[in-house]
Amino acid sequence: MRYTSATLPSVIASPALAGRGDPAGLLRRLAPRNDTLRGLLLLTVALLLAGAVRAQSVSWDPPGGSLGLNQMTELSLVFQDCSPDGDAVSLPRVDGLVFGTPTVGQQRSFSFGLGGNRGSSTTTFTYPARPTRKGPVRIPAFEIETNKGRLKVAEAAFTVEDAPSAGSGGVTLSDLAIATLSTPKTNLWAGEVFQVTHQLSIVRNRYNGLDPAVQWQPAPIVADDWSKPSLAETVVRGERRAVNTQTTRAYAKEPGRYTLGPTSQVVSLVVGTSGYGPFAAPIAEPRQLLTQPVDLNVRPLPPPPSGYTGAVGSFTFTSKIVPLSGAVNEPITWTIELAGTGNWPDIAGLPAREVSNDFSVVQPKSKRTMKDGALFEGVLSEDVVLVPTRTGAYTLGPVRFTYFDPQAGAYKTLSTDTVTVTVGGAAGQAATQPSIGAPRFMTPPESTPSLPELPAAVPPAPPEKLPRDPLPTGESGLAPWPVRTLVWACLLSSVLCPLIVWLVLAAVRSLRTDPQRRRREAKRRLAAILAELQSAMGPSTAASNRLRDWQQETAVLWGLTHAAPGTPLVHAGVAARARDAAAAWTKLWQEADRALHGPVAPLPADWLLRAEGALRAVRVPGWPPFSLFAARNLLPMLLLGLVFLAPTDARADTTADAYKRGDFATAEKTWRATLDTTPRDWAARHNLGLALAQQDRWAEATAQWTSAFLHHPAADATRWNLALGLQHSGMAPPELVEFSRAEGAHGLARLASPGGWQRALVGASLLLAAGLSLLLLNGYRHLGGWTKPVALLASLAAVLLAGTATFSLHTYGQLAHPDVALVWKASVLHSIPTDADAAQKTSPLSAGSIAVVDRTFLGWSRLLFPAGQTGWVRTDDLQMLYR
Fold first, then answer.
1. Is-same-fold flag (57-161; 313-442)?
2. Cα–Cα distance between 565 and 763 in angstroms, integer?
3. pLDDT tens-digit profile of 3-26?
4. What does DSSP assign to residue 818?
5. Residue range 842-851: mean pLDDT, rounded
6. Which parts of 136-241 fold into alpha helices (H)?
7. Which CATH number fits domain 173-299: 1.10.443, 3.30.460, 2.60.120, 3.40.33?
8. Distance, C-alpha 95 to centroid of its chain
């Protein structure tokens, strides 16, 4: 901000201004009377003469300089008076420089000039960056889309040198800290699980902390998660050192030569102190420690015996039969269990069992239970229910399981004991000889209903709380027209308007119901996605998101209705519409799948060209205009007109009538249709919850009542039904229980919805601005002395309102997020959005969990929990609370 007021005093003091530049001599009269106003006037004129027009730009800060090898530093991409077009920025790939996830900051300032007040905004993306090689490193110039158009980012050049030593006296980083990666042995068998140890040794008085995350790409080796850091102390050559150890387990599926690592981990080292004496404080800097790679030789297994299914490790195999004697048609349970440590991801199931065909066998289901946080240690059990149909003595077993023991270097076979089961009959029934054959499988028998037992006599209890009556959904009234307008409206509406509206609605319906509409839209979106992929190629989050969007729109283009179609389904779907294009689209899909879900496998260099060519070759029929005259498009409007023209007593019952006569399914369907068009209608959500509760679907009802409460918590009906739903559904999220109790802060917060408190915060800002404006007007003597107390009261009220609103929004917490969702039934949280990969990490997800949906993909939604945990869950298991 520049001030150009050096010549102003002489101008104001000049008497010549009274007749020329100063109308009525205003400046000449004000200056002698009030020195304060004179100073303010000088400052105002100076600010008006200052200010400069600043062009939009994007640049690196710093634009160059020196960087330390393997040392974390911060590079900022600064957007001046503009912002990126989208949430993410795609950076060019830089050889020798690794970027991390950026933090985003915004700043706004104001300047004053001849053109008036000007605002200036700065948006900064600060990237943690780590150089990986010495020498010159250049970030090439590139273009980026912003809200002000496409702008060019100039090149940034750096020189990478050895990182400064962590101290003085010529001490190098390797003298202070060293990282090692080791395994118990380097000659292994295919499928053998082995331990990997990552260890940091740091001089004790230089240790300040570490990042527990070990950066490692184990693929193609399958590895478990790293253990938690284990810190200990030791003495090496008379020097005390802190030793941090983390371990994991891994195995290689196929024989061959492999290389582990290198791994990297960030540590914080003390490099000096600031201050003196008791005020001295350590100065710490992050350092990246790398390990040397470890070479492994994985040998193939010897020729397997018959019955071997691929298990490698150390196992136990047990069998249990209960009971050993029974009667005809009484079930016998035969349980076998495999437990131990080994290559569990490759173990598909348990060996088959043979029983007499005199048994009806309930189809068994395997249960796999893995140790918490372990990928290679677990139990696999299977229960078979045998129902004898004839009497006699039967032999069950043995069952054999063969695995390879890597410690012994040989195959071993575990066998269960042979057990005899005696089946008797009713009195006088002769025993028969069992017949041998294949087992007969059947579905589990339905439980036979038994007669209810009469309860003990007790005094009658008060009736339980019941759902309240439905509320009328939102409707707006109409004001009367003048007589002349009414006459013209009647004339036009009787002939012309109905015809025009009819044809327009028929055309809209024709467009909406056109079977090729979604394919045309998908083709347009695919073209846009491929254009975005041109600038986002590489292993980045933006490229992965665009690639997932490409798969989703491809499924729509070819009419694939499966949530996660595989390659055979894609080939069949494309071949049904364009046989010649099936091979090309199937290959593109397979390569995209490999890049998204497989090991590190970038897209082929010509993938984009082939994808664009395949898209151009697709021909989707356009909309036929004459289809609006089809009966399916004209008849719905005719029927609708007949309904409205019919007498009032002949119209269909309202949704509330359907609810009152007990047709809850119809009421549910209609209220769901209402919410599809007006998702913020809290009364419709309240009513939908009533219809669901009447069908004993309390969990879904509670989800709808929660949404109604968050839209309008001041209504007595929403509070009542929220408490009722929590009582019957078994869900008890702490946030909702506290709001239902309305104690303390939650009682204050539920006076308004999160949206209401947000608008109150905006109102408080306006009220504060009004108070400050009154003080300015009083200072310039445009208003009387009453303005000061009024302004102070307004400012105080604004501060109190803003504080109350902020406190209430904090009380709502994540319930105030527009994308918050409630898990209304018990589900499973997946690490990747698919049910097909059995090796992925999963976790049970309890009903009543509350999280934010930050991404969706082919029928899946990614949940973001307050602690930072993320995971994918089926969208059908969620209820969005605000949409």
1. yes
2. 50
3. 333 333 333 333 333 333 443 333
4. T
5. 82
6. 173-176
7. 2.60.120
8. 31
